[in-house]
Design brief:
10 helices; 8-stranded parallel barrel; binds cytidine-5'-monophosphate; TIM Barrel
Length: about 240
């Protein structure tokens, strides 16, 4: 894979003009655009499709509901032609299986490539204490591993994980299971609110397939230059 293809840029804004300007600046310099709840909820599916154009779309809506509803949401989201979409692994086996099946069937019906269906294990904003408060005993890391195994068993394509989980999940889930990793900071950027960070090259060298990068690119004075710099670092320059 061309190293720059591993970079997915998180466009976290409700504002159409700002989003368009960011997408224009990184076009052709990165592997894809990640759109989450903020832009989607403000602007809707038509705007997402128009914004992303020919670029790859990671639709980060993290579905979590009863299986029938998630399957419907996955089918509806295929009209935006995402290359990657995601659900919460804690929605359970039936929900994940329904999501994977819906993606497969709807992609065939629309004659579009089947997106990678990815699961979020444990949100990195939750620590061990938060998990206990919602009735989940044991360390977050054990829950991450358990949910990644369940995700793989349900036939999904991979998980979103933090940098510190890459090595363990790569070893546990094998080479074909996709690991999509936020919390990435080049050495020349500020950490912001991300705590467990890793550089792009480190993350890829230990097994990340895709790295999700937001502010180091979107808040840079020159987002195109920042994207190029990260791509060059990934290519070993
Ligand atoms: O600006 P920054 O590089 O921190 O943005 C990272 C992107 O990845 C944001 O869209 C954020 O919502 C998302 N994300 C994250 N940590 C997770 C999961 C998703 O930062 N554990």
């Amino acid at each position: 894979m061309d190293p720059k293809e591993r970079i997915l840029v998180g466009i976290d804004t409700p504002d159409l003009t700002r989003a368009e300007s960011l997408v224009r600046s990184v076009a052709g310099r990165v592997g894809g655009i990640k759109i989450g709840k903020e832009f989607f909820t403000a602007q809707g599916p038509e705007a997402v499709r128009k914004l992303v154009g020919d670029d790859s779309l990671f639709l980060d809506l993290k579905f979590h509901d009863i299986p029938n509803t998630v399957a419907g949401a996955v089918r509806s989201s295929l009209r935006m032609k995402p290359q990657i979409l995601n659900v919460h692994a804690s929605g359970g086996r039936a929900m994940m299986t329904a999501a994977a099946q819906a993606a497969q069937e709807e992609a065939a019906a629309l004659a579009v490539p089947k997106p990678l269906v990815i699961a979020v294990t444990v949100l990195t904003s939750l620590d061990d204490e938060d998990l206990v408060a919602v009735g989940q005993q044991g360390p977050a890391s054990a829950q991450v591993e358990r949910l990644a195994a369940l995700t793989q068993d349900c036939g999904l394509d991979g998980v979103v994980c933090s940098p510190r989980e890459i090595a363990v999940l790569r070893a546990a889930c094998g080479p074909d299971f996709k690991l999509i990793v936020p919390g990435i900071r080049p050495t020349w950027s500020v950490a912001g609110d991300q705590k467990r960070i890793m550089t792009p090259s480190e993350a890829v060298s230990i097994g990340a397939d895709y790295i999700v990068i937001g502010r180091p690119i979107t808040s840079a004075e020159d987002p195109a230059e920042a994207a190029d710099r990260i791509a060059m670092e990934l290519a070993g320059h």
